[in-house]
Amino acid sequence: MSYLRPPSSPDSLRLHLNENTAGCSPAVLAAIHAIAREDTAFYPDYGPITAAVERWLAVPAGWVLPTNGLDEGLHLAAQARALQTRQPGHVLFPEPAFEMYAACADASGLGVVRIAPEPGFRFPLDAMLAAISPDTRVIYLTDPNNPTGLGVPRGALEQIGSAAPGATVLVDEAYADFSGRTAIGPMLDRHRNLIVGRTFAKAHGLAALRAGALVAHPDTLAPLRRIQPPFSLNVCAIRALDAALGDRTYLDWYVAQSVESRRIVYDLCARHRLTCWPSEANFVLVRVGDDAPAIVAALATRGILIRDRSSAPGCAGCVRITAGVVEHTRRCLDALEDLLATRAR
Ligand SMILES: *Cc1c(COP(=O)(O)O)cnc(C)c1O
Predict the structure, then answer these.
(1) What total number of domains does the chain contain?
(2) Ligand 1: lining residues by beta carbon, under 6 Å
(3) Which protein residue has the closest C-alpha to ligand 1 atom 7?
(4) Full-prediction pTM beyond 0.90?
């Protein structure tokens, strides 16, 4: 699968997968070290961690389904809808999009309908509404989007949710800790076909432990609960997540680092007259030009990994740079500046 972690030397600076470049909170490691022999031997109880996530997201009991990373949640949404009708159908999403959505459709025997990007990545609301049909099973929306970092405009979720009463609208909020915005709230009660997906991989730095959550009305989650394996999160992920949620100071520090990192990326783009998009997430999409693949390769030889997105729809000439710890971003930008200077000559 294209989504698999690309090979890289272990000491590379990883700015290609939007991971937390500082690692997890030290409290997370302490919690893992505190695991006892019996803890690894007994099937875990999900009650306490589910309650902790419900508190963290400020939703009532029963509104959270913890998942083995958000990826599992994305799959569950497609599988549950495919099973419900057992008729041919499709998933629908605007491009450019996270690669997993098409994989979820494949895994569930569903087709894929992709909405082409509009100029400036304006959200294609009319095209989305026009594409909805009785065969639409799941609509994946990423807010803020990956790889653009742009938000879904206000009101679009409700409009799409109302226009597709027979489909699940999965709002992927993998980067909500950075955007500070969420669809979690009264809207989920009014629109029972909406499910919000969250991950603790990115801002909380738990990508390797696998911890995510789906948030929706309990009736909406019920068909997904039925098909999820009963022990999807392992004990390390549970303890780590609990500790991560308890360390708000660390999260706030990291989010602030990301804000400053994005600012210095924008500065570089302004100096070199490169197009980039104002990002609400921990990365920036930058149009470096036709030599984007060569620039990505040249940075890789210097031990700095960024993501070539030039073949994604609407993203010709673009790379995506993770904006995490400021010092890491600076190292990347210094090297990029070097390459751009050589190119200018
Ligand atoms: C990283 C990412 C995910 C996956 O999160 P995991 O919890 O690691 O499975 C889901 N959606 C988007 C848009 C992402 O960028």
Answers:
(1) 2
(2) 18, 69-71, 98, 142, 146, 172, 174, 199, 201-202, 207, 212
(3) 69
(4) yes
Q: What does the pLDDT look like over 281-292, one tens digit per residue? A: 999 999 999 999
Asked if residue 213 lies in contact with residue 57, where contact means CB atoms within 8 angstroms, the answer is: yes
Instruction: Looking at the structure, tell me whether residues 117 and 62 fall in a common domain.
Output: yes
Instruction: Answer yes or no: do 164 and 308 share one domain.
Output: no
- CATH number, domain with residue 292: 3.90.1150.10
Å from CA of 199 to ligand 1 middle: 6
Please tell me the residue having the least CA distance from ligand 1 atom 14. 174
Picking from 191, 221, 245, the residue at the C-terminal end of a domain is 245
* CA-proximal residue: ligand 1, atom 5 (nearest): 70
**Given pLDDT bands bounded at 50, 70 and 90, which one contains residue 343?**
confident
Helices (DSSP H) in the chain: which residue ranges? 26-33, 37-41, 47-57, 69-85, 100-107, 125-131, 156-163, 176-179, 186-190, 218-227, 235-245, 248-271, 292-301, 326-344
Give the residue from 192, 216, 245 where a domain finishes: 245
